[in-house]
Amino acid sequence: MARVILGVGAGIAAYKACELLRLFKESGHSVRVVPTPDALRFVGEPTWSALSGEPVTTGVWDGVSDVPHVKLGQTADLVFVAPATADLLARAVAGMSDDLLTATLLTARCPVVYAPAMHTEMWEHPATQHNVATLRARGTIVVEPAVGRLTGKDTGKGRLPEPEALFALAQAILGYRTGSADSGTPATLPADHGNASRGGNHAPVPEESLSLAGRTVLISAGGTREELDPVRFLGNWSTGRQGYAFARAAVARGAVVTLVAANTELPDPAGAKVVRVVSARDMDAAMLAEAPGADVIVMTAAVADFRPVVRAEAKIKKDGALPPPIELTENPDILAGLSRRRAERGPAGQVIVGFAAETDPSLDAARSKLARKGCDLLVLNRVGDGEGFGAADNEWVVLAADGGATPVPRRSKDALAEVVLSLAAARLS
What we know:
Blueprint: E1 3-8, H1 14-26, E2 30-35, H2 45-52, H3 68-75, E3 78-84, H4 86-94, H5 100-107, E4 112-116, H6 120-124, H7 126-137, E5 141-142, E6 146-149, E7 155-159, H8 163-178, E8 216-222, E9 226-227, E10 233-234, H9 241-252, E11 256-262, E12 272-277, H10 280-290, E13 296-299, E14 306-308, E15 328-330, H11 334-345, E16 351-358, H12 363-373, E17 377-382, E18 393-400, E19 405-412, H13 413-428
Parallel strand pairs: 1-2, 1-3, 3-4, 4-5, 8-11, 8-13, 11-12, 13-16, 16-17
Antiparallel strand pairs: 6-7, 9-10, 14-15, 17-18, 18-19
C-alpha cells in the first residue's frame, strides 16, 4: 500500500478531511497528516493523531533529528492537500517553506494534488486563478471545486468535493502511477499496442508521454432519454459508470475535464466540470459547444438513435383503446458530427474516441462503423447477459483508424478507461 501525506489547510472544510483520512486508512494506506498551524484551529492534533496512528506536527523544528521537512516529501507516494485554501495555494506557488506542509510540498517528487475549498469570490479572483494555472503548469493536479453550500448562507463554486470522490481520485492517481493490479494501469503501453491484428512491433510508449497534464478532455456519459409524454420516455440501461471512470482517470493524469452527463445517479467525480443533459439533442448541443477546446473527446454515452416525432402534452392514458402508433425520427449522430466538425474547423490533432455497444460484436461491422463515424479509436464491447450496462467490469477490443486492434481482457471499468486513455494520449504525443 501507498505512503500518503494528507496536507490540511486552514479552512472550515478541514472536517471533511477526517473522512478522507478514514478512507485512506481503511484501504490499508499509511497516512501522515501534515496540517498547517492554523488548520489546528478547525480540527485539533489529537483527532488527527488518533485517526492516523501517526504523530502530527506543523513546524519544521519538531523532531529535527529525523529531518521531517525533507524526508516526508522524499518518501511519499502521494501528497494530497484537502482543503487547499487560497493562502496555501499562493504560498505553494511562491515556493515558501515556513511550515512543515509547505516544506514537504517543495521536497515531494511524487504526485501532488490540491483540492481547493474557499468562497466563490476567492476562487474566481485573478490571483487565485493565476496560482492554479501556475501549479498545473508545474505538473501538479489542482481539482476543480464543487458547486454547493459554502460557509453560512453562501452558495456557489468553491465547495470541497465529497471525501468519497476525492478518495476515488487518489486511488486512480496511485493506480496510474504504479501500474497496480487493482487499476490495471500500464506504466507503458504494450509493445504491440495498436497493431495486435497486424503483428506489428511498436516500441513501448514511455509513461511521461501518456500524461494528460495541460490537456483538455471532454467525455460523455450516461443514457439519453426521449420523452413520450410528461411521465414516460424512450431510454436505455446505461448507468454512466464507464464515463465517470474516464473522468476520474483523466483528472488523475492532470487533464482539465468536462463531463457531459445524461440521467445518471452517480456523484460528481472530483475535479471534473459536469454539464447535465437529458435528451440526445441536449447532448449534441453540449458536446459541440465544448468540443473546440478539447484535445481528447471520449463518447461513452448511450445515445438514443430515435425520438418520437410528437411528444404528448398530457399523460397517455390506458382507456381501453390502443394508443396510436408512435412515429419516430432520427436523432443527430453526435460522434459523426464531432468528427465532421474537427475536419472542417479543427482543432488539428484532436483525438476522438467512440464506443460501439453490441449484443453480437463483429470486428468487420465495427471497422465499418469506425470508418463511418470518422473517429480515431472505436471501443467495441459486448452488452447483455450481465455485460456492459451496469456491470462492474467488461472486456473490449479497441480498433484504430490505422487498422490496429488492441484486445483488452475482462477487467474493471476504471482499468479499461486507463488503457483507452493511454492509447489516446500516445496519439497526442
